[in-house]
Amino acid sequence: MDSSLEFSSSLGSVSSLLTRCRTFKVLVIGDSGVGKTCLTHRLSAGEFPCRAEATIGVDFRERVLEIDGEKIKLQLWDTAGQERFRKSMVQHYYRNVHAVLFIYDVTCPASFIGLTSWIEECRQHCLGQDIPRFLVGNKSDLRDTSRTNSQVTQERATGFAKAHGMMFFETSAKDPPKKCTSGRRGEGQVLYQQDNVEDIVTAVAFSFQAPLLWNQLPAWIRETDTLSVFKIRLKTFLYDKAHSQGWIR
User: Fold this and answer.
1) Regarding beta strands 58-67 and 70-79, do their DSSP bridges make them parallel or antiparallel, or are they unpaired?
2) What keywords does the record list, in alphabetical order (predicted)?
3) 19-212 domain in CATH 3.40.50.2000?
4) pTM of the predicted model, to two decimals?
C-alpha cells in the first residue's frame, strides 16, 4: 500500500477512535471505613455526600472527561471493604478491570498495612502489573503532622507506592485542596503533599492514552529491541508522513 494512503487510513482510524467515548472499569478497593464511597462521589460528581453508609456489594459511579480531544468514561466500582459483603461477588469485581485505586486512611495505619492483602487479592484474580495502579491516601484533612507515630507518613506511603509500581496521591474527599501543594511542615519538617482530586482523575484517564497511541504505530516501529533504534524509526516515520501530507517541504 502507498505510504500516503496507509497514513490516511491510519488517520481515519485514529479519528474514529477519538470521536467515540471509550469506557474503562476502575476498581476502588481498600479496608472498610477508609472513605472509598465518599472519594468516588468526589471523583465522579465533584461533591462530598451528605450521608454515606457501608457499601454492600458494589456501587457504580461514572465520570466522563475529555483528554486530548478524546472522550473517556471512567466507570468507578466502589467495592465493599467488609469481607462478609464481598464473598459472593468478588470474582465479578475483577473481571475486565482497566485500573485499580488502592485507598487507605492516612490516620489509620492498620488500613495501610491492610493494603498488602488487597494487592494479594489482585494477584489471585490475575491482575498483572500492566494494569495501572494508584495509591491514594484519604482523609488528609484529619492529618496531624505532629503525630507521625500514629499516622501513615508520606515517606512510608511513597516508598510503598514505588515498591509496587503505583502512582501516589494524598487528598481529602471531604475537603480537597484547590490545587496540588507540597513541602515540609511541623517540628520534624515532615513531608506534606496535598493533591487535588482532579489530579487523580486526570492521571487515571491519561494512563489509558498510551496504549491507544502505541497501537497506532506500525509494527516495524513497535517491534524494536533497543530504545535508540525505536527513536530513529519513529523519527523517520513521522518525518515521512508529515512530508507526504505537505506539512513540511
Assistant:
1) antiparallel
2) GTP-binding, Nucleotide-binding
3) no
4) 0.72
